[in-house]
Amino acid sequence: MYIKFEAMKHWKKISVFSSENTRFLVAVGILVFAFWVNLPSKGREDVKVIKSVASFGAFWEKYQPVIYLGIDSFEKKDILDSQAGDAYRLVFGARADDDQIVEVVARSQNGKEFSIGKFEIKKESDGGTFEKIFVADGKYQDLIFKRNGKEVLPESRIYIYNVRLTRLERVSNLDKTIFGKTDILNVGSFDGDAYDAEVLSRKGKTVSQFVEIEKGGILFVDMKIEKVGNGGGGKYRISIKDPSKEKGKKKYLKSLNFDSKSLGKYAKDEGLYRFELPVYSKNGGKYELEISNSEVEVDSGNYLKLGGFGDGQESFFNVIATKYYEDSNGERILTNAVFEDLGSEYLYCYENNGYVTDLLDVFESNESLQYDWFRNSLRNTGKKGSFYTYKIDTVKPFKSFRIEAKQLEIEKDQIKIEYSFDNENWKNLTYVQEKNGPQIFDHSFSNEGNHDAVFIRVGYGDDGSSAFGLEKFKVTAYISK
Predict the structure, then answer these.
(1) CATH 2.60.120.260 residue ranges for the chain
(2) Distance (Å, rounded) from C-alpha 395 to C-alpha 251?
(3) How many CA within 13 A on the CB side of residue 401?
(4) Are 391 and 329 within 8 A, CB to CB?
(5) Contacts of 20 (CB under 8 A, 6+ apart)
(6) How far apart are the first and last CA of the chain?
(7) Cα–Cα distance between 467 and 380 in angstroms, integer?
(8) Contacts of 248 (CB under 8 A, 6+ apart)
(9) Distance (Å, rounded) from C-alpha 68 to C-alpha 152?
(10) Were 226 and a residue from 93, 149, 305, 377 both cysteine, which residue would form a disulfide, CB within 3.0 to 4.6 Å?
(11) How many CB atoms lie within 10 A of CB 245?
């Protein structure tokens, strides 16, 4: 029943963050950024030495083309600083609206070009990850992605994102790079209540059906809805429940209340509405979906009429779900995480995507953790005791670990960040905060034992009055071979 989600090229439309239909702004104004951490060397105490890793192109640029009609290349200046004999690993994500070939070249200040490789970009809804190890033959500064030998049509668009360039100690006998990946799947509901378009015209009704997903989670629930009359007065409720619980005690995993007046803010297309109901599922399984009008005054002239999905229109609900991948220890590899072999040691990196899949990278949380489409960040309720926690699994025991974070808001002492090796005993991270500026965290520590996982808890501090979150969250760890 799993169907690969072929409408991903229109995924920008998911960005429903206001009732004024401004959801298409999410993919606009993308900030291209570059940052560097340091090349590992023997005897190094922390991760701050010389420039070795450069990256640019955020995950959400996956839905913003960089090569299209009239634009045949995409370049990043001063991303390299190579000498003859220097080894690098290039990793990038790409997708295209039709089959394309992209050549990646390095360019020197005097215009000399060095071909790193040619890559076949297949027409795929979810794109692919490409990797190339190369040795520079001279001094180069710029990195260029070129369309190569393909007829250009108006719809021939190429998307380049999550570009990563790592300096290596050698090019032979390197282990395979592990990438965090989250597939997007389109899953219909089944079983449960038979389809009845007018069921919500009768007071006190709950419609229930089931969905089965793989390891991963649920992001959105789609419904086809037609407002009849004023739609009814009061709050409708959409819920996801765990059907493994005893009858009458089913656990409500996530619920969303809305009234007919605010229905427009959830509109995806005409007659189609998308509700954000993220649920993480470590092992996958069957979940129950329901919509209830128990708190709504309805009659035959004022209610929400339901449409159906599937060939026989038998499904009330259509679920946008995710499938994640695991490492050799059976631990989830977070989206956008990379575990790579540098030669004498491994490097693990993870940073937030600035995309809704960030919700499913969270290990646990309380209160109402949500994805803010306007800010492209997670936000939790501004309430003392509120928190959300990441579990960073480094695959193997690490030597050194670095946490970098930047507060989303500008509010004094609003956030506290702690880390733990067991999710019980916590240590606080210090931060700096200039006047009228965000809190900036940058903390490195070594392994206190043989740990291969770190829990990082983002909590609400003693002060502050608004919802809290992080604009930037990044971890880097070096692991011995």
Answers:
(1) 31-171, 338-480
(2) 32
(3) 24
(4) no
(5) none
(6) 42
(7) 6
(8) none
(9) 8
(10) 305
(11) 12
**Residue 264, φ and ψ in degrees, nearest 5:** -60, -30
436 versus 67: the higher-pLDDT residue is 436
Can you say whether the dihedral through the CA atoms of 325, 331, 476, 354 is positive or negative? positive
Nearest to 308 by CA among 210, 208, 191, 188: 188
**Residue 343 backbone class (left: φ over 0; alpha: ψ -120 to 50; beta: rest):** left
- From 270, 279, 471, select the one nearest 365 (Cα to Cα): 279
Query: What is the C-alpha to C-alpha distance for residues 449 and 209, in angstroms, rounded to an integer?
Result: 48
Number of residues assigned to the chain: 481
Q: Phi and psi at residue 367, in whole multiples of 5°?
A: 60, -150
Choose from 14-18, 233-237, 274-278 the range with maximum mean pLDDT.
Answer: 233-237
One-letter identity of residue 144: I
Residue type (1 letter), 286: K
CA 192 to chain centre: 31
**For residue range 190-226, what is the model confidence (pLDDT) as tens digits?**
777 787 899 999 999 999 999 888 877 888 899 999 9
pTM equals 0.70
Q: In what order do the strands lie in the sheet with 453-460?
A: 364-365, 387-393, 453-460, 415-420, 427-428
For residue 204, which amino acid is it? G
Asked if 474 and 351 touch (Cβ cutoff 8 Å), the reply is yes
pLDDT at residue 52, as a whole number: 46
Quickly count: other Cβ atoms within 10 Å of residue 47's Cβ. 20
* Strand partners for 474: 351, 404
How far are the Cα atoms of 230, 331, 475 from residue 401, in angstroms, in the given order?
56, 19, 7
Which homologous superfamily is 31-171 in? Answer: Galactose-binding domain-like (2.60.120.260)
Contact criterion met (CB below 8 Å) for 127 and 90: no
Structure tokens at 60: 């959400």
Distance separating alpha carbons of residues 20 and 10, to the nearest angstrom: 19
Distance (Å, whole) CA 366 – CA 388: 7
What distance in Å separates the CA atoms of residue 143 and residue 77, rounded to the nearest whole number?
A: 6
Q: Amino acid identity, residue 167?
A: R
Place of tokens 């029943």: 1
8 Å CB contact between 315 and 190: yes
Measuring CA to CA, how many Å separate 264 from each of 273, 334, 371? 8, 33, 19
Q: What CATH class is the domain 338-480?
A: mainly beta
pLDDT band at 228 (very low <50, low <70, confident <90, very high): very high
